[in-house]
Amino acid sequence: MYLHGTSRINRQGHLEIGGCDTVELAKRFGTPLYVMDEEMIRERMRSFVKACREQTDFAFRVAYASKAFNTLAMCRVVEEEGLMLDVVSEGELVTALAAGFPAERIYFHGNNKSKGEIKRAISAGIGWFVVDNFVELELLQQVANSLGQVARILLRVSPGIEAHTHSYIQTGQEDSKFGFDLASGQAFEAARLSKKMKGVQFEGLHCHIGSQIFETEAFTLAIGKMARLAEQCEQAGYPISILNVGGGFGIRYSADDKPLAVEEVIQAIAETVKREFRFAAHQPEIWVEPGRAVVGEAGTTLYTVGTVKKVPGIRKYVAVDGGMTDNLRPALYQAKYEALLANRATETETEVVSIAGKCCESGDMLIWDIALPKVKQGDILAVGCTGAYNYSMASNYNRLPRPAVIFVNKGEADIVVERETLEDVIAHDRIPMRLQKQMVSEA
Ligand SMILES: *Cc1c(COP(=O)(O)O)cnc(C)c1O
């Protein structure tokens, strides 16, 4: 397994993260356990901010796409590092507000924002809405007007670019549930309409062309298309001041992944905007909104090995105490992960096994064919790169309680999300009167 961030192998031959021995962490907090390397999270945010600062021709802003991993403590880190925050639901918004995150640095994404969500977000004083469709545009202006406010907006555009990635996570192609279609003129029409509305203020354009992107070309192509739309808008008398080019910066889940350096992507984005926006009286401010590139590599999940089963002549299954409930991505996208035995990290690999989850689904496999030392019951398996879209997609399938999340930093380990209890799992269940067990009265 590739060792990201502060991960290393200590003198006991154990995996250590943030100065904490993961075997000790497993003992202290139980498994499955999400371990987040706080220093690495901060370091990743700083690398985006620094790369953006170095592009001195432009004003850049970096937002964290909170859907990748959103908790109260995470919002504190995002605020401390000076990033903006993008949210896609009232739940993500409330998390940020409850953490004291400044509302004016929040903006709201999503293809089906409810009236209630819009009301709450305007009342809280968030910075911007990224408007996804005509129905939302109309609803937003109504709500803003009824509250006597003006909502600042970006329009989400579907630019018709396919980033080279698994089709389920492509969002930039024309046939998309997200955004105003560019090719058919919808996007321009939305800009034109919004300029006539009282409750909204059109400030810019947004696109997000996919995730796990490994080449700058996807961004440069999209920016070219967005620039033509911006030019059309400027000619019509409504120049844009913000161009948000989305997130999707690829990370290294496994050896097959070759992510670009942050500096390289940011530079390519800046150069392309400079070239494509020559027409503009003022260059727009550029926004980027990485999610997984901030938290993905900083997360590691610890599991305890349970049963080991050999299918003669076929394969050996090693089952762990979690699975698709804490990491849905292998089942959802055939995502690849690497792992090691945290308690015997220096031992040589002697066998190829497949890591199974404990859920009642044949598709609940975390890793196919991984080389490990001979695995025994009770070993601690560490799966790397689980910081993004793991905790945030976790479920209670099979009524498994969701794992705890801890932040580790310089030898300290702190719980940022408590492990769910079995009481939590049944806490919202109700038994209707007619189904309640009859108590036979003695009288
Ligand atoms: C999911 C998403 C992101 C973040 O994507 P990553 O692959 O995690 O960087 C950014 N912007 C929008 C609109 C998204 O939907």
Main β-sheet: number of strands, strand sense, barrel status?
A: 9 strands, mixed
| End-to-end gap | 68 Å
Strand content: 15-25%
Uncertain parts: none
Question: What percentage of residues falls in helices of 4 or more residues?
Answer: 25-40%
The distinct bound ligands, ions and cofactors come out as: pyridoxal-5'-phosphate
CATH architecture heading of the largest domain: Alpha-Beta Barrel
Structure description:
- There is one protein chain.
- This protein is an alpha/beta fold and 443 residues long.
- The protein folds into two domains: 8-37 and 297-426, Lyase, Ornithine Decarboxylase, Chain A, domain 1; 38-295, Alanine racemase (TIM Barrel, Alpha-Beta Barrel).
- Helices cover 28% and strands 24% of the residues.
- Strand 7 (106-108), helix 5 (115-124) and strand 8 form a beta-alpha-beta unit.
- Helix 5 crosses helix 6 and helix 8 runs parallel beside helix 9.
- The N and C termini lie far apart (68 Å).
- Bound molecules: pyridoxal-5'-phosphate.
- The site of pyridoxal-5'-phosphate (PLP) has 16 residues, from helix 10.
- Residues 41-295 form the Orn/DAP/Arg decarboxylase 2 N-terminal domain.
- Its EC number is 4.1.1.20.
